Amino acid sequence: MLRRERRALTPLTLLVLAAACLTGCGGPARDGYAAAGAVAPGPERRAGDNVAPRTPVEFQQLAGSPSSTTSTSASTPGPQGPADSARSGATTTPPGTTPPGTTPPGTAEPPQPPPVATPAAPGAGTPAPKPGTTPPATPAKLTLSPPTRTPAAERWCENVTVGFTNTGTTPTRSGTVSFATHIIGALGIDWATITTAQPLPAPIPGGTTKTQTYAVCVEPWRVPLGMHIETRTATATWT
């Protein structure tokens, strides 16, 4: 009698255990989902046994749970069509073509020719004087040439020729030229230097040269017999 009651209660017990397993066994429960499907037959699943089901388990959303789901499989992007490219803003280029403004790979850019310098016109950068105007005047400035010496009749005199060049635009009105005359002994010893002065050949216009020959002399007693003079330098002052 007891064996018949135990057999009669066995299907009910298995149903309760299956319902408990669907909500609590087989790992952590997913939010908003419950397992549905066949369970193991009665003889193979006993109370307290953790036996995995033989058939696939399907999770179904429970009433009142959020509709978001989590997928564990990686998605593989498929080929993007023209409509998808238009929506994403991407620009497609047909195969074998190069976008405008770019150089194909492996192609060197052509060398650019060097810039050609244009020669400036003669006198460029110097303003030309206006017609009817006179350039500003510059003060007189004399440049003297090295003195040229020739012997005179007396040994204490000699003829000295000097050229005076006025590099300014204003003429020299007056001035003096000074000569440094050396007294040389019979053995070539320079005994003394005597300075004498004479007037310039004024006026000397601007931009012109005047040449003048002077008789340069010292005191006769300074040049005894056997000695002579040499005028080596000349300087000028002017106004």
Descriptive overview:
The protein is α+β, with helices and mostly antiparallel strands. It is built from 2 helices and 9 strands; from the N terminus they run αββαβββββββ. Strands 3, 4, 5 and 8 form a 4-stranded antiparallel sheet that branches. The protein has a 3-stranded antiparallel sheet with strand order 7-6-9, with no helix packed on it. The chain is elongated and about 170 Å long. The chain starts with a helix and ends with a strand. The relative contact order is 0.11.
Provide a compact summary of the structure:
Helices cover 13% and strands 27% of the residues.
Show the helix and strand layout.
Elements: H1 2-24, E1 33-36, E2 58-61, H2 82-88, E3 142-144, E4 148-151, E5 157-166, E6 175-184, E7 190-199, E8 209-217, E9 228-238
Antiparallel strand pairs: 1-2, 3-5, 4-5, 5-8, 6-7, 6-9
Termini gap:
162 Å
Gross morphology is elongated
Taking the sheet with the most strands, its summary is: 4 strands, antiparallel
User: Which strand-content bin applies to the residues?
Assistant: 25-35%
Average pLDDT taken over every residue = 72
Radius of gyration: 63 Å
Level of helix content?
10-25%
- Total helices: the number is 2
What is the H-and-E element order? HEEHEEEEEEE
Return the structural class: alpha+beta
Total beta-strand segments:
9
Ranges where pLDDT stays below 50 over 5 or more residues in a row are 27-31, 65-77
